[in-house]
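Contributing new complexes? Match this layout with serine.
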Amino acid sequence: MRKSVVLVTGANGELGHGLIETMSEGGHDSILALDLVPIEEGMRRRCRETFVGDILDRDLMERIVSQYEVREIYHLAALLSTRAEFTPETAHRVNVEGTMNLLQVALEQSSWRGDPVKFLFPSSIAVYGMPDLETKRTAGPIPEHKWTSPTTMYGCNKLYCENLGRYFARFYRQLAEAEDSRAVDFRGIRFPGLISATTMPTGGTSDYGPEMIHAAARGDAYACFVRPDTVIPFMAMPDAVEAFLQLARADRNALSLCVYNITSFSLSADDFRTHVERAFPDAKISFQPHLKRQAIVDSWPAEVDDRAARRDWGFDPKFDMERAFDEYLLPTIRDRYATR
Ligand code: SER
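Output block (do not edit by hand):
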């Protein structure tokens, strides 16, 4: 018989690393990791098996399910918001067609198992499109259903995939005579900007936060690409990983939404600089806004409303701004660069 596994796509990304580390430390021994580039050695040891390949490759997917029964999918592979603007068509293929492929794997596996496969999907604050700065400043925390007219390819892709997931979970082939027992148990989170102390993000537009802190720890100068007064929500990586795992464990019947906002703290780029300079007094941080990347960040909300996540599945982040810096980011980043 095939071994039952949890498939993680985009396993080499920063969320993938955090997730695989936490799952394997919790005793999880059935992780199957997939990425375009070989999975790093330290990660490989934590997985049952690793595959190098493209989520668009249907043959690879077939190979995987011929060997393994997939009971849960964390579909993390994506081209982030800045990178996607350079190659929107490729972004569409990877972000949308790739997700469609994985949803089909999930559907097929659900039918083999007679039980819906859980499909965990990272969406983003990029699905929002605030019309102007004044609205962004005055709107307060944005709930899931408001201001969803994104300006980026990545935001459009994520919003559509949220809807695809909801369709596969609730409406798949709704006109069929016979009740279709196959379904996908789709669960998504709109993550704020994520900050990891151990990995650097690539290709995102919220990256100025993590880039600033990592540059200071390395002793490098950093020119921030947004204005000092720019505010978006952020979250420390351990809280993001824990939220994903918590949502995966939640009782299906308690979930009133397919996709939830979550947030920890909103701060301006200038607040970020103050925190970084307090920890690294020699940090050389300047502001050189890139007008077009600035416009993207300006279209993202300053705060999101995560009451549904708190109510339905008990979301409760551990790291507020002070703790994120003092207890997670600074000590871990100092360690990381001290041992190099
Ligand atoms: N961090 C992502 C990006 O900047 C947003 O989800 O693209």
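Reviewers usually confirm one structural detail per submission. For this one: The mean pLDDT is 96.
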